[in-house]
Amino acid sequence: MRKALYLLLPILALLCSCEDEADDYRYPSVCTDFVCFATDATGKFETMLLDKGSSYAVRFTEDLLEAYDNKLPTYKSDTLYRLIGVYELIPTEQGDTVADIYAIGSIASSIPTPLLENEELHQDPVYMQSIWQSGGYLNFTLEIKALNGKHAIGFVDTTPEGMHGKEFTFYHRVVNDVESYRQQLHGSIPLYPFEKDLQPNDTLRFIVNLYDKGLTVYDFIQ
User: I need a labelling partner for 35 at 20 to 30 A (CA). Which of 21, 45, 82, 99 fits?
Assistant: First the structure.
């Protein structure tokens, strides 16, 4: 049986867009991005890395601490996490820049693996909101019809023999839920394990079953 990610669809608290918020002076100029957070030896977020290559020291805001009742989640030490960051870049008196973090959100992220013997590829439908490649990841935002139940989420390596590149298929199985209102699911597939398989001009392919289009293929030329 596939080791899939069972989850309530992630909802990002304090979600803001990358623009001035006229109605909320607390967020004068924040951005919302898929980012990587690196932890230190104690498991605390130490550095935020943007997909464009820049990195910043991390500083938590009162808004974030209040959202977690001053008890932030515990993370593994010296580890890189793929998450959504709501942040503001603040120049310091020392001449560098620090990232004030207002909120963090979940991203479904795992390395695709082939199907096991006798394993079924579940492809319950979703809606595609956006898909793009950046920072060494294939990123997307989907919408899933759900209420409060569980969904099995995963990424399957379905690369056919002889293909110049890699093909990944979105695995989605409704475990215990009913189709209700749309909820966002953010996903990010790491590409570093497949560097040898993705040479210049190769194809990176993503397949997903959509409500409005059926099985849909997204190709990215490397």
Answer: 21
Contact 191, 155 (CB under 8 A): no
Tokens 């996490």 locate to 81
The reply to whether 10 falls in a domain is no
Query: With 90 as the cut, is the pLDDT of residue 95 above it?
Result: no
- Is the Cβ–Cβ distance between 194 and 166 less than 8 Å? yes
Residues near 132 by Cβ (< 8 Å), separated by ≥ 6?
139, 140
Are residue 121 and residue 99 in the same domain, yes or no?
no
Q: What is the pLDDT of residue 17?
A: 39
DSSP conformation letters of 100-157: EEEEEE--B----BPPPTT----B--BEEEEEEEETTEEEEEEEEEESS-EEEEEEEE
Looking at 105, 136, 152, which one is the last position of a domain? 105
Output the average pLDDT for the chain: 85
> Which CATH number belongs to the domain containing residue 62 in this structure?
2.40.50.500
pTM: 0.84
Domain hosting 77: range is 31-105
In this structure, the answer to whether residues 113 and 217 fall within a common structural domain is: yes
Contact 12, 103 (CB under 8 A): yes
Q: Where are the alpha helices (DSSP H) in the chain?
A: 62-67
Distance CA 10, CA 107 (A): 8
